[in-house]
């Protein structure tokens, strides 16, 4: 079995949002603030039929999912009537008596209960198989909290479910404290049914209430839906003034489950992050003019959901943070896990380890792991004479120059009318070489026979084509210097003679350890570990090291620090990147607002704003760095213009010096 502890209701101070005195008036109903009453509010003879009809109507909104119904002895008769009236349109139905779920272990201690492991497994399997809704008809509110907490603790509770609870709560303070209990404060769709005194003292009505989030500067507050009216009835003008709220006439998407979390009412959320360009760029002067890709996304979410942001750095001085041997987390991740921060971001990868301790929103970007390498030197200019042709072409050309002279000599030996000059191999070599160099030959050395003429003409045509191609290519290579050939793949990295490495924390190298690819295994075996990002970049600048990190970060780093005045990168990022990572925001586990954040993030991504913002950040960083270098050098070399509010440098090269061609 699985041991369960008793979790009583919170004793913390609570304000009363619906009452200032002893009663709260809703129509003509009274929410009794005292636990004493002349009417037994939980007398099922008075309220049973109303409750059955209410549960039957609620079931119409629950029939697309499985239903789990937990009841106690007081609700036996209600359950029997409900089963007879309910249309049984659920995916599946499961009924459990509360006493069968929790078993008393120690008879001397009634609070020492044990929850059967089979029950936990059943709840969890059903949660994974289909959507699930809960109906809890339990008189004792402590027992309701205990059941939900145990399911929550064992990850067997579906927090996206609709939860209907009928229990004994006598005043607004008790109701609010109950709704603030864990995990009820994590379930968005809760319908709480409590009994209240009706029009007449001997009547009992059903009060429907739920919680609301981030209103009146409270995280969880009480929201009274109304008094349930079984059916519409004709009333006099006097009765109409005090009539119960008729929920059948409510114009809501759901009359029992009102929409929530569409507006945070200006509530201030605590954000934990740190300076990590380009996603987070904090104002280093101590102000609030923060920037960065993820800061822009957060501000868009705040604008859409109407909340304010209190942005702070982790109090312990750590950045992302890590798990200590005692299980506690440090840094921003620790603050989110403990609930000290409502949201955190700094290029968080959505990984299985993180999802064990926090929730993550939908991805707003996909990043890849790349290597950054030194920019290799371009080939020396004296090699320009051989660069027009590839080595294969040069080899074929040399082979042709060696074979054709022998072919001409053998042809002349077989032709009786040919000149004896072609019968010497050295003369044939000079003749062929002269044709290849497009040089004219004396008339006395011209071929006289048809076979010799055909052989020479064929070779002259091929030599002419080769010569023209070479001259045109050579002209281009002389005018435009050849670019260096940097490392762009893992195979090229192995052949480059460079060493390679990664940070000494973060587990980056582990992504290669399980690979069966021989190239990946060689990369894994050659990893060297450096101290932090700065240590890796320093090794790269030494000229013999390749450093692996986030491709997005490396791209921004090159633009903002390693781009010359002409916009040319001084370090190279490999084109072959690997291990894609989804990036999102971290929120406390099972937060009610994670889903709403994800909805806004998805809209931002679909609008193309994330890509647009990141490109702007990279372009602005590169321009700022070029202007800084220009100021240090005190020179020019670039034409500066303004496009869409962003300064752009246009480098003038040989392409701009070419004359225009007339249009046909």
TrEMBL record:
Composition-biased stretches (Basic residues): 1-14
The record's subcellular locations are: Cell membrane
Membrane topology summary: Multi-pass membrane protein
Q: Which residues form the Ionotropic glutamate receptor L-glutamate and glycine-binding domain?
A: 278-338
Predominant cellular place of this UniProt entry's protein = membrane
Q: Which Gene3D superfamilies match?
A: 1.10.287.70, Periplasmic binding protein-like II
Q: What are the entry keywords?
A: Cell membrane, Glycoprotein, Ion channel, Ion transport, Ligand-gated ion channel, Membrane, Receptor, Transmembrane, Transmembrane helix, Transport
Task: Cite the residue spans of the region called Disordered.
Answer: 1-30
* Transmembrane intervals: 391-413, 456-480
Gene Ontology molecular function terms on file: ligand-gated monoatomic ion channel activity
**GO CC terms in record:** plasma membrane
Q: Name one GO biological process term.
A: detection of stimulus involved in sensory perception
Q: Which family does it belong to?
A: Belongs to the glutamate-gated ion channel (TC 1.A.10.1) family.
Output this protein's name: Ionotropic receptor 21a-like
The organism named in the record is: Hirondellea gigas
Source organism lineage? Eukaryota, Metazoa, Ecdysozoa, Arthropoda, Crustacea
């Amino acid at each position: 079995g699985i041991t369960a502890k008793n979790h009583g209701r919170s004793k913390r101070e609570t304000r009363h949002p619906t009452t200032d005195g002893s009663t709260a008036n809703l129509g003509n109903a009274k929410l009794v603030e005292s636990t004493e009453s002349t009417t037994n509010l939980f007398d099922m003879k008075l309220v049973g039929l109303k409750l059955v009809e209410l549960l039957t109507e609620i079931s119409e909104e629950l029939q697309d999912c499985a239903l789990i119904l937990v009841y106690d002895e007081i609700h036996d008769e209600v359950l029997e009537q409900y089963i007879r009236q309910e249309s049984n349109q659920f995916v599946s139905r499961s009924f459990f008596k509360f006493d069968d779920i929790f078993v008393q272990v120690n008879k001397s201690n009634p609070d020492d209960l044990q929850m059967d492991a089979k029950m936990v497994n059943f709840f969890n399997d059903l949660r994974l198989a289909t959507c699930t809704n809960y109906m809890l008809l339990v008189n004792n509110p402590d027992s309701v909290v205990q059941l939900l907490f145990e399911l929550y603790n064992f990850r067997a509770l579906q927090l996206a479910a609709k939860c209907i609870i009928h229990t004994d709560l006598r005043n607004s303070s008790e109701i609010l404290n109950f709704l603030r209990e864990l995990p009820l404060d994590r379930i968005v769709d809760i319908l709480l049914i409590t009994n209240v005194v009706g029009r007449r003292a001997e009547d009992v009505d059903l009060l429907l209430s739920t919680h609301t989030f981030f209103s009146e500067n409270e995280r969880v507050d009480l929201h009274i839906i109304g008094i349930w009216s079984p059916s519409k009835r004709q009333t006099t003008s006097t009765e109409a003034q005090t009539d119960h709220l008729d929920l059948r006439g409510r114009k809501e998407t759901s009359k029992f489950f009102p929409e929530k979390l569409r507006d945070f009412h200006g509530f201030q959320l605590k954000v934990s992050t740190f300076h990590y360009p380009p996603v987070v760029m904090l104002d280093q002067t101590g102000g609030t003019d923060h920037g960065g890709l993820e800061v822009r996304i957060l501000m868009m979410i705040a604008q859409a959901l109407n909340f304010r942001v209190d942005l702070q750095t982790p109090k312990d001085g750590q950045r992302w943070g890590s798990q200590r041997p005692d299980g506690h987390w440090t840094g921003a991740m620790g603050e989110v896990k403990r609930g000290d921060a409502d949201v955190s971001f700094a290029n968080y990868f959505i990984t299985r380890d993180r999802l064990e301790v926090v929730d993550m929103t939908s991805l707003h970007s996909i990043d890849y792991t790349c290597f950054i390498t030194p920019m290799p030197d371009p080939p020396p200019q004296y090699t320009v004479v051989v660069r027009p042709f590839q080595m294969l072409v040069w080899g074929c050309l040399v082979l042709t120059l060696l074979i054709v002279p022998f072919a001409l000599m053998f042809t002349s030996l077989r032709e009786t009318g040919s000149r004896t000059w072609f019968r010497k191999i050295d003369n044939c070599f000079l003749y062929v070489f002269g044709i290849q160099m497009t040089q004219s030959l004396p008339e006395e050395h011209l071929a006289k026979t048809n076979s010799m003429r055909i052989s020479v003409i064929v070779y002259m045509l091929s030599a002419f084509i080769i010569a023209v191609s070479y001259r045109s290519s050579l002209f281009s290579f002389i005018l435009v210097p050849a670019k260096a050939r940097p490392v762009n793949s893992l195979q090229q990295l192995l052949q480059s003679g460079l060493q390679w490495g990664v940070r000494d924390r973060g587990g980056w190298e582990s992504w290669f350890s399980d690979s069966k690819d021989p190239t990946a295994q060689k990369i894994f075996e050659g990893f060297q570990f450096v101290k932090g990002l700065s240590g890796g970049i320093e090794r790269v600048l030494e000229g013999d090291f390749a450093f692996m990190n986030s491709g997005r970060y490396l791209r921004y780093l090159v633009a903002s620090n390693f781009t010359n005045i002409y916009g040319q990168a001084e370090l190279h990022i490999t084109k072959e990147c690997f291990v894609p990572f989804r990036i999102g925001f971290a929120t406390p586990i099972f937060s009610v607002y994670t889903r709403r954040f994800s909805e806004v993030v998805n809209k931002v991504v679909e609008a193309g704003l994330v890509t647009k913002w990141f490109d702007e950040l990279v372009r602005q960083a590169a321009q700022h760095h070029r202007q800084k270098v220009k100021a240090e050098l005190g020179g020019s070399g670039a034409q500066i213009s303004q496009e869409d509010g962003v300064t752009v440098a246009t480098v003038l090269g040989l392409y701009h010096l070419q004359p225009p061609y007339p249009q046909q």
